[in-house]
Specification:
Length: 336
C-alpha cells in the first residue's frame, strides 16, 4: 500500500509516519511545505529508510499534488495551519492552506482515482460545551466553529463531504481532540508550559484557566487514523478522543509538580478571543465499529511527554531561537 501523507513534518504527521513505518508495511511519500511548523529534525532517523520519501512542496500547487497522487493509492491529509492563536493574528493563511489547499487535494484525489482520501480534522469544528453537565461531541453534533482556525477546518470538512456527495469520492474523516506527545511545536500549551517552567519563566494562563480540553496521546490518534483508513466505512466520519478532560489550571499544576517548580509561576493573562469553554468527545462509534480505544492513560502519556520535552532540549531550543521569538513577543509581549 502506498500512501501520500501531507504535513508529515509537523507534530502529528511526524508521529504518524514513525508509527506507520513501525506498525504497518506501507510505503510513504511525505509532502510538506516546511512552514514554521514543519521540522525535518523530527524525521531524521528515517532519512535512509527505503519505504519513506520526502518532497518539499505546497498542497496548494495542483501540478505537484497531481504528480504525487499518480504514484499512490491512499492519502492521509494532515497539512494545515493548526494554531488557534495564530489564526487570530493572521486568519488569511488559514483559509489559503486549510480551505483552498484541501480543495486542491480533493480535486487531484478525484482525478487520480485515489482509493481512500482520509481527512484529519478536529473537535473544534463543533464549537463549545458548557462546564456543567456531561455533554460530549459526537458525529451528529452540528458544526459551530468560533475561531478562524476552526472555521477553516469546518470548511475543509464540508468540502470533503461535498466531493463525496457530488463526485463519489471515497473519503473518511476523523475529528479528534487535543493531541500531546513528542515533536509538538512549543507554541502549543503543553510544550510551552514545560519550556517556560524549565527556565522558571511564567506560564501564561488564559482568562480564569477553567477551559477544558480532552487530551489524547498522539500514538493513539495515529492508530485510530490507520484503522479508519484500513477498515472505516467510506464517506463516514469518526470522532476520536482520549477520555481525559483537564482544565488549563490542572495541566499547569501537573507540569509544575512534575518539574518541582512553584505554582507561583502560573500567571493569569488576557483571554484568547472566542475561547471555547470545553471540548469532550464521545468516541463510541469508532470503538464499536473498529475496536479502537485510547491505550495510553493520561498519567502515563503526560509523564512521557514532559520527559521527551526535557530530554530533547536541542530540538526545542532550535525552534525557540529564530523566527519563533517574533511570534512569542507579538502573542505574549503585552500579556506577561
Ligand atoms: P502542525 O502545525 O504541527 O503541522 C502542520 C504541518 O503542515 C507542518 O509540517 C507544515 O509545514 C505543514 N504545512 C502547512 N501548510 C502547508 C502547505 N500549504 N503545504 C504543505 N504542507 C503544509 O499541525 P498538527 O498539530 O500536527 O496537526 C495536523 C493536523 O491535525 C491538522 O490538520 C490539524 O487541524 C489536525 N488536528 C490537530 C490536533 C492537535 O491537537 N494538534 C487535534 C485534532 C486535529
Ligand atoms: O481540540 C483539537 C485542537 O487542539 C486542534 O485542532 C488544534 O490544532 C490544536 O492546536 C489544539 O487547539 P487548542 O487551542 O485547544 O490548543 P492550545 O495548546 O493552543 O491550547 C490549549 C488550551 O490552553 C486552550 O484552552 C488555550 C490554553 N492556553 C494556550 C496557550 C498556547 C493558555 O492558557 N495559554 C497559552 O499560552
Amino acid at each position: 500500500m502506498k500512501v501520500l501523507v501531507t504535513g508529515g513534518a509537523g507534530f502529528i504527521g511526524a508521529n504518524f509516519i514513525h508509527w506507520v513505518l513501525k506498525n504497518r508495511d506501507w510505503d510513504i511519500i511525505n509532502l510538506d511545505k516546511l512552514t514554521y511548523a514543519g521540522n525535518l529534525e523530527s524525521l531524521k532517523s528515517l532519512e535512509d529508510n527505503s519505504r519513506y520519501e520526502f518532497v518539499q512542496g505546497d498542497i496548494c500547487d495542483p501540478k505537484l499534488v497531481n504528480d504525487l497522487m499518480s504514484k499512490v493509492d491512499y492519502v492521509v491529509h494532515f497539512a494545515a495551519e493548526s494554531h488557534v492563536d495564530r489564526s487570530v493574528l493572521e486568519p488569511g493563511v488559514f483559509i489559503q492552506t486549510n480551505v483552498v489547499g484541501t480543495q486542491v487535494m480533493l480535486q487531484a484525489a478525484l482525478e487520480n482515482k485515489i482509493k481512500r482520501f482520509h481527512h484529519v480534522s478536529t473537535d473544534e469544528v463543533y464549537g463549545a460545551l458548557g462546564l456543567d453537565g456531561g455533554k460530549k461531541f459526537d458525529e451528529n453534533t452540528p458544526y459551530d466553529p468560533h475561531s478562524p482556525y476552526s472555521a477553516s477546518k469546518a470548511s475543509s470538512d464540508h468540502l470533503v463531504r461535498a466531493y463525496g456527495d457530488t463526485f463519489d469520492l471515497e473519503y473518511t474523516i476523523t475529528n479528534c481532540s487535543n493531541n500531546y506527545g513528542p515533536y509538538q511545536f512549543p507554541e502549543k500549551m503543553i510544550p510551552l508550559f514545560v519550556a517556560n517552567a524549565r527556565e522558571d519563566k511564567p506560564l501564561p494562563i488564559y482568562g480564569d484557566g477553567e477551559y477544558i480540553r480532552d487530551y489524547l496521546y498522539v500514538d493513539d490518534h495515529c492508530e485510530a487514523i490507520a484503522l479508519v483508513l484500513e477498515k472505516g466505512k467510506s464517506q463516514e466520519t469518526y470522532c476520536v478522543g482520549g477520555d481525559s478532560e483537564r482544565s488549563i489550571n490542572q495541566m499547569a499544576e501537573t507540569i509544575l509538580k512534575s518539574l518541582e517548580k512553584p505554582e507561583s509561576l502560573m500567571t493569569f493573562v488576557k483571554d484568547r478571543p472566542g475561547h471555547d469553554r470545553r471540548y469532550a468527545i464521545d468516541h463510541s462509534k469508532i470503538t464499536k465499529e473498529l475496536g479502537w480505544k485510547p491505550r495510553v492513560t493520561f498519567d502515563e502519556g503526560i509523564e512521557k511527554t514532559i520527559k521527551w520535552n526535557l530530554d530533547n532540549a536541542d530540538w526545542i531550543q532550535n525552534i525557540l531561537s529564530g523566527e519563533y521569538q517574533k511570534y512569542y513577543e507579538k502573542q505574549y509581549g503585552e500579556r506577561l
